[in-house]
Amino acid sequence: MLLLVLANHWAGAQSLPAAAPLCIGETFTLASKVLGETRHINVYYPPVYRDSATVRLPVLYMPDGGLAEDFLHVAGLVQVLVGNGTMRPFILVGIENTARRRDLTGPTTQEADRKIAPVVGGSAVFRQFIRRELMPAVRQRYRTTAETALVGESLAGLFTVETLLLEPDLFDTYLAFDPSLWWNKGELVKQAAAIVPAYHGPAKTLYLATSSQGDLAGTARLATLLQAPARPEFTCYYEPLPAETHATIYHPAALRGFRLVLKPRPVPAKK
Question: Is 173 helix (H, G, I), strand (E, B) or coil?
């Protein structure tokens, strides 16, 4: 009887149509001379890009961009927000990690910080990879505009804020959720007190959000610096989300941030 049941089960399985891969985007590899390793890059673009041979779109870059990291749920947000008209269409470029704590942290003098990974403090090199290798590859492969944005949470949020302060020309818009501003005993926020007043370049936008477990004091100090009336070069939004934890903040903060700082722009009235 058991053999008959198994035979019937096998026959039923054999009659099922073959499954096909479920594809939501593209992936490619980039042999990086800057980093000395090959990196995997995941890309999602909205239907407006697929349906046109000429349309050009801005690009939203994200660390933690692997399929087992944050790429899929952020791609889903881009898909639904673009679809319902609350976000402008962006090409999403996810950078899959190889050594996350190396790439997303700056230098530190704190022994406790250095214990989190064999190598830390590689954020400047990682930015050079983005600037010199990844961005040119994306511009070559896809139809892009000059507009760029960067989004990250936790250590990727630290990297996002550090990039705004140290290399602000790299992106136009920055979104950081629960940024790990405690790194190096809060040195980045201390440096911001001198960096922000000295900046007189093109306008930059930053969206900050913190959970109940985030660095509330450091993030609030940074937001206060950037929101000063004497700092018209910066548009800074800060939203504490006390109902969220460090593990839950990314998706709701990205939903709010994308709607706020990547929203559709008003169409100029015809004269």
Answer: strand
Name the 3-class secondary structure at 118.
coil
In whole angstroms, give the CA distance from residue 131 to residue 146: 13
23-261 maps to CATH 3.30.420.40: no
Question: What's the pTM value of the predicted model, to 2 decimals?
Answer: 0.92
Cα torsion 22, 87, 56, 146: sign = negative
260: Cβ–Cβ under 8 A, 6 or more apart, which residues?
A: 207, 237
What is the model's pLDDT at position 15? Answer: 81
Structure tokens at 224: 């206060």
CA distance 43 to 27: 6
Q: Please report, for the chain, the start and end positions of each structural domain, with discontinuous segments joined by +.
A: 23-261
Helix (H) or strand (E) holding 222: helix 216-226
Tokens 């930059």, located at residue:
204
State how far the Cα of 245 lies from the Cα of 39, in Å rounded to an integer.
30
How many Å apart are CA 163 and CA 174, to the nearest integer? 9
Is residue 192 a contact partner of residue 231, using CB atoms and an 8 Å limit?
Answer: no
Structure tokens at 195: 């960096």
pLDDT digits (tens, 9 = 90+) for 158-217: 999 999 999 999 999 999 999 999 999 999 999 999 999 999 999 999 999 999 999 999
Q: For residue 128, what is the DSSP state?
A: H
Dihedral of the alpha carbons of 43, 74, 58, 134, in degrees to the nearest 10 = -50
